[in-house]
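REVIEWER CHECKLIST
Item 1: Sequence provided? yes
Item 2: Single chain? yes
Item 3: Sequence as submitted:
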Amino acid sequence: MYWNDMREFLAHLDRKGDLVTVAKPVSTKFEIAAYIRKSSDTNGPCFVFDDVEGHPGWRATGAMYATPGRILDALGVPIDQVTRHYIEAINNPVPWEVVDGGPAKDVVITGDDVDLATVPIVTHSEKDGPFITAGVQVAVDPDTGVHGLGMHRMEVFGRNRLGLWAPNERRIGRARLKREERGERLEIAVVIGPDPCTVLGACARVSHDQEKYAIGGALLGGAVKLTRCETIDVLVPASAECVIEGYIEPGDTQMEAPFGEFPGCYGGRMEVPVMTVTAITHRSDPIFQTVLTGFPVTEDHLLNWVPMNAVVYEDATRVCPGVIDVTVKGNYVYEAVVKMTKRHQTEPWNVMSAVLAGNAQAKYCTVVDQDVNIYDDREVTWAVSTRSQPATDVHIFPVMVGAPLDPSAPLVRQTSKMGTDATKPLGAEALRYEKVLVPGADEVTW
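Item 4: Structure as written out by the authors:
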């Protein structure tokens, strides 16, 4: 599915009746986020806000990825093909194309004219400060030359200062750490409002030596068009709505505000590196994109859904060829479900062990048979209820490395984990475990 830019995707949603334009004035403090929260809770529409208070010339958009259906629209595939489609893109990258200029450079603001207060950066949750949440950060790894892409929270600290929380094991954090060890500044760009496939490519969990722009191109079905920044040596999508350019000096840090994080709780406050902004470029009529995170499910969770599926699938298939499909649910990090064809009685144990120890860092893993629809929570719950016994089919791993930001973890990123075998025993009486169906129910209409 080829999208030249974010606006083409918004136009697609509008044609489907899945976009609402809000004409009345809205505030960046809580009000825009309230629309997104309501949409996330009710399977509601995407929004474009035409009148953002205090920000003439800007519009805003939110809830663009707040339903699974819109993620599937962005990728152009049905739900039962989405994980394999994403893995195919990872394995068959499409090199980018460098162009001169582009809509992202309609307006160029540099030097003393830079002021983040002119950009409609949203305050989302009750205890938050103003955070950029939909920005794709781009920085070049000093060892490999690879353009690292990530999506990390950035708090506004002043006219030209942005905090950045990017863990050191992730691409942006690792590039910053390498530069700091050399006593050098890290040049970094923040891309707001690129095409959806570039966003989804940026979320890929792949080796640091693989170019994520090329994964975005594979998802897009054509080369991502990139242009060079004005004040730093970094390539960014030419069709983006806005690009914020700057650098992080070694040792320049500041304490950030609380932030409502993906587990649905507030992440602990921490000292974070600070980006000094050297330029803001944007379209002549820019649309600021924001993403809500917080209590599941939000668009932040759904942006990670397919990339996390791909990681779980690869971890599971590494130990079992009978894996059919996987998904993550809950907060889209802690819970994994694997559908498989079981050939040996204990194969599900191998699968859950691999997934819980794997790169997805899942806390729970449930394994089900091929007759269970893993995208329907009712069916997964039914399988657990009727095909597992707590005393024999649940395995507790006392302590393993876990995902970040789990408030229940006794130590940072250390947690107990649980696997559940909700598959039918081999050789058991078939009728005892067979799902009760009504023939013809799927064809009934009214």
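Item 5: Key structural point noted by reviewer: The CA atoms of residues 202 and 381 lie 32 Å apart.
Item 6: Recommendation: ____
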